[in-house]
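Q: What structure does this chain adopt?
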Amino acid sequence: MSFLATKRQQAVGLVAAWVAATVEGADRLNPALLRALGRDESWDGWRLPLRGARGGDLHLLLDPEFPYSLPRFALGRRTDLLRAPHVETKGRLCLAGDGGRADTLDPVAVVAYSFGEALALIAEDEAGANREDYAIDFDAYWRRDVTDPLPLRTCLHAERRSRLVSAWHGQAFYFIAENARDARTWLTNRYGVDETRAFKNAALIWLDRLPEPEMYPDNAGRARRLIEASSYRGLPVFDRLMATMADRAAVVFMGATATGDVVQAGLLVEGPDWASTGTKAPKPNVSRGFRPGNAPPSILALRRRSHRVEVQRTDAWLGRMRAGEGAQLAGKRVAVLGCGSLGGGVAKLLLQSGVGRMTLIDPDTFAWVNVGRHELGSDSTERNKATALVERFRPMYPHARELRAEPTSWQVLLRRDPKALHDCDLILSLIGDWNAESALNDLQRSGTDEVRAAILYGWLEEQAGAAHALAIGPTGACLRCGFGPTGTIHVPATTWPRHAPVGCGGPTSIYGAVDLAPAQSLIASLAIDLLLGRASPPIRRAWLAPQPTLAQGGGCWHLRWIEHYGDPLQGGKLTATPWPKDAACSCALLPVTSFS
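A:
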């Protein structure tokens, strides 16, 4: 027997002894009873009788990971509590929630404490307490009571108003967006082009007060009464849907919980349920008895049934971000110049963060030598980097409203279209080529209208011993202020006695994906701060690799860095350093125009 199996056997034995000594009338659950509760023979359990006039049982269940997991409890013979707060499907009690911690060295104490918590919850539910939890965790209680397995996937703005929206009816799910254009863009990004997709009206109803389970509608008539009682101006939107829908329509309820979180719940409304007769029966007319178009919406609703369904929010990831950041970034436009190992990873981080419009620009093809440190893999070799990245990112991040590839250099792009970068909120130059980036810097300072946005330059020092993110605006210090005329930085962070070999294609860059990750995060983080107005150019941040990384390649901290910014010692740190204007820099001689 393995170590963990032995530990479990010992823990279960201790719990069994505690149950026998503590709970009168308790019974061990046999395999058949465990299966009836949705568990297999790898579980152990007991039936613990509940005292009091209402009786019933409490099932104590230990999973295969016990004692390195929490005990579970489920109600038995208590149908009166199956819709009570903190009671989940099949009577399971929600006590500690996901991720609850246990004293894994004292299984009996954990079970005893959890048993007391379960009894306290049952007593509170019997007394009618905890009802405010329905509004705190509304979406979870709605999911508990769904009556149709078809989910609604939504991508909707959290606006506190009712309105008609657009729906695509698929076989596996319905997709709901603010309008047909947004729905088509998301579906095309995720699943590819399909010209046969059709879109229908759906209703989004803002509820000023979220309902408790006994008010959850089980037909369209009850849904209408709920809207009438709980939604300001939601009834005209619902009635319009009732008057114009065909066989089936979707309704999304949206509201704010007691903690301020915006939640969604779904409803499918359809025609009357006619039993199948095996023959072609006439289609029931929900408007019978009225002239066409004159049936009252209340009658149309009463004659239709509804099903509660789960809502799967395709923007749920925004809930893992700081409030409002995702919505702000969704409206930003970014251009990424250079889609190598650095640029590809930064682009991915920005899309994951919610940036809604992005153009990737790179003339080069992806080679086998970069498979180990690029977002692309071996299936993309010999393809243009920008094009391959866009094709990969579109289904991964369908929320992006515009994701475009330009398989050329930025110079060629601007010769073809001088306003190609005109509307960008931020330009990221991750080319790592002094000639191209000094040209971009001079163009920004030229006073023309081709580059209006701030430019965020990012580069790695040799062997990824340090990484730099430098934001330059139309005024103040420029890129050249910190470099010599041929692109040698004035104050490098590292020095390398043994340099990488240089061939006709330029120097070989020695670093792997792990070395690259902090640099990508550094640049993406500053990009987000710039887009959200939390930082402004000129600003430079640097990542200094752990000292053993330098030592492995024979590198060390550069004396000039130590003189200016102090000794990094063991490294492994992020630092912000000045980027002062150089009075002798040529930018002082160039015409400068400040663009708002």
